């Protein structure tokens, strides 16, 4: 009985390893053009372009289903980069999608927060920490400034605070990389 269980467990591990290898071996890579377009987009995941996030918008641009001028957070600079990449004519930002604004992050005025969790549900990047009926706070290093948490707040305790570009904040919309000390590896 015990040996049968051991054999079955070993077989399950073997099958899992084979399936895992097959998944790695046959991994389908994404469209390189979509990846290049997505790299230009600001990764706010705000939906102002009419798509549920930056990657779906990038896919639509690559497929010729969307104009390059629909992203307010990417602004004029993003439109110019997309036009250059795609060899398309520059178009000014489509005002129907919003206006270009300075970089900002959400701020919760914690003394007013009632812990309703509506902001947690609205945040596309999980930049809000808190629990039901408890105070919430923004993890500013993760906040993309999409503003999606502002409207659902029933007590208007969330505001957008401008981010001034400094040595510490210049990378706010890019992945955070650890600097490695000279002669060693990052801890």
TrEMBL record:
Signal peptide: none annotated. One of its GO terms (cellular component) is plasma membrane. Coiled coil: none annotated. Its main location: membrane. Residues 104-133, 134-163 form the 4Fe-4S ferredoxin-type domain. It comes from the Bacteria. Its cofactor is [4Fe-4S] cluster. Residues 29-88 form the 4Fe-4S domain. It is found in: Cell inner membrane. The complex is composed of six subunits: RnfA, RnfB, RnfC, RnfD, RnfE and RnfG. One of its GO terms (biological process) is electron transport chain. This is Ion-translocating oxidoreductase complex subunit B.
């Amino acid at each position: 009985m015990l040996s049968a269980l051991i054999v079955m467990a070993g077989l399950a591990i073997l099958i899992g390893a084979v399936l895992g290898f097959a998944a790695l071996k046959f991994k389908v890579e994404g469209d390189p053009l979509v990846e290049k377009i997505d790299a230009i987009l600001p990764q706010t995941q705000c939906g102002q372009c009419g798509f549920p996030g930056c990657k779906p918008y990038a896919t639509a641009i690559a497929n010729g289903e969307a104009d390059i001028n629909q992203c307010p957070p990417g602004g004029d600079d993003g439109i110019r980069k997309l036009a250059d990449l795609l060899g398309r004519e520059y178009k000014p930002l489509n005002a129907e999608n919003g206006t270009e604004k300075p970089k900002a992050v959400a701020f919760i005025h914690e003394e007013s927060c009632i812990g309703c969790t509506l902001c947690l549900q609205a945040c596309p990047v999980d930049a809000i920490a808190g629990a039901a009926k408890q105070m919430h706070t923004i993890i500013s290093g993760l906040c993309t400034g999409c503003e999606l948490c502002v409207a659902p707040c029933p007590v208007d305790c969330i505001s957008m605070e401008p981010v001034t570009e400094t040595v510490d904040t210049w990378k706010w919309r890019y992945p955070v990389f650890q600097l490695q000390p000279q002669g060693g590896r990052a801890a």
